Amino acid sequence: MNVWQAAADLIRQRRSGALATVARVRGSTPVPAGTKMLVGAEGRLIGSVGGGCVEADVIAAALHAQAEHRPALLTHHLNADLAGDLGLSCGGTVDIFVEPLLADEAYVCVLEIVATAESGLVRTATEWGDGPVKTFEPVALGGGASDAAATLTRDGRFMEERLMPAPRVFVFGAGHVGTAIARAAESAGFRVIVIDDRAEYADPARFSEGTAVLNADSDAALSRYPLTTADAVVIATRGHRNDAVILERVATSPAGYVGLLGSKRKKAVVTKGLTAAGVPPASLDRVRVPVGLAIGAVTPEEIAVSVVAELIAWRRGKP
Description:
319 residues, alpha/beta, Rossmann fold, five-stranded antiparallel β-sheet, five-stranded parallel β-sheet, 10 helices, 14 strands, elongated
């Protein structure tokens, strides 16, 4: 669930809580800046800021901030010995901003606006006088392989968060494997669009509300959704011919990731045909076939795990 909306809902329900955000990191730390955790009266509700004693201290600070109606800025130093004992990444320092969730209408409105915004800049004062100070500016910050990030201003008076849209994953083919990939990709935080030219498969009822479903052929789909470098494409249709038609269109596109479900033999057959059709070899060389990490996956769900693991590696810039 969207942590911003969950925080707003908590206030609307007149329940107590606080929002913890990793505001700055130096060195090697368990989580990146921008990571959030929602804390309720009973403890952690959504998210994590690292686990171990760090999280325990943050939960305690969150409860105190809620009781006092004042935010707090915590600093944790993770030396190698401490981090090793806790099973955390070692050698870094993390600043965590904890803000109580107060029944201030302007504050709640900002939370709800951010919950549906694709990009923008959120600024939150680290010290509150007469009430919470949080603003949102809907500026285009770009998207792609980066997530929302946070930082403290030089004077430490504000925490600034750059919200950027998660990468889109286009899944061509809504069969057993395509459906499993779509579900796993959405769970991993991608924006998922499923395309199939068969109406019985391109049925929104088969997917969650967070997945866009399009009953169309590849030409119509790509006309509606022009691909960018921030997009990933996974081709998992019902046959070689359909795969080849789609691959011919997307191999030369700007898409940052292109994967084709199938064997090495399928790759050779499809590549040979598309090369003869004039698709540049360099465009075909970048296509991942078989798609996904080589973990011996067999079932649709296992294949989905391998594919989404590879998508995450691409998203995070890992080779």
